[in-house]
Specification:
The protein has one domain: Alpha-Beta Barrel (N-terminal domain of MutM-like DNA repair proteins), CATH 3.20.190.10. The strands form 2 sheets. Strands 1-6-7-5 form a 4-stranded antiparallel sheet. A 3-stranded antiparallel sheet has the order 2-3-4, covered by helices on one side. It is built from 2 helices and 7 strands, in the order αβαββββββ. It is of the alpha+beta class.
Length: 110
């Protein structure tokens, strides 16, 4: 399971790569990430929004959106973030794939 320093590293990585970019698309490959949300509802909440800032609390990473909502990430046993340019570079174990208007993607795997 990721330790607190690992989650802090993920926070800094997201801060350096994906903040203040407009979300163009949301794809969910691991529906277990959603808890009680539908894929459509998550897409509605995230698309055309920007990731505004991050806060770490324990092993959770909270990401505020420009409309005041929050995206909560928990990294599980082998979780990570990956920011990349080409969708074909998406890892096979993608959980949540966020596409930005600048053509880059953020993969969250828990």
């Amino acid at each position: 399971m990721p330790e607190l320093p690992d989650v802090e590293t993920f926070k800094r990585y997201l801060d350096a790569t994906a903040l203040h970019q407009t979300i163009d698309s949301v794809s969910v490959k691991a529906t277990v990430l959603l808890k009680d949300l539908s894929i459509r509802h998550l897409q509605h909440c995230l698309e055309k929004r920007q990731l505004k800032e991050t806060q770490r609390h324990g092993k959770y990473l909270f990401v505020s959106l420009d409309d005041g909502d929050w995206l909560v990430l928990h990294f599980g046993m082998t979780g990570y973030l990956q920011y990349f340019k080409h969708r074909k570079d998406s890892p096979p174990d993608t959980g949540l794939l966020i596409g930005f208007q600048n053509g880059y993607y953020l993969n969250f795997k828990n």
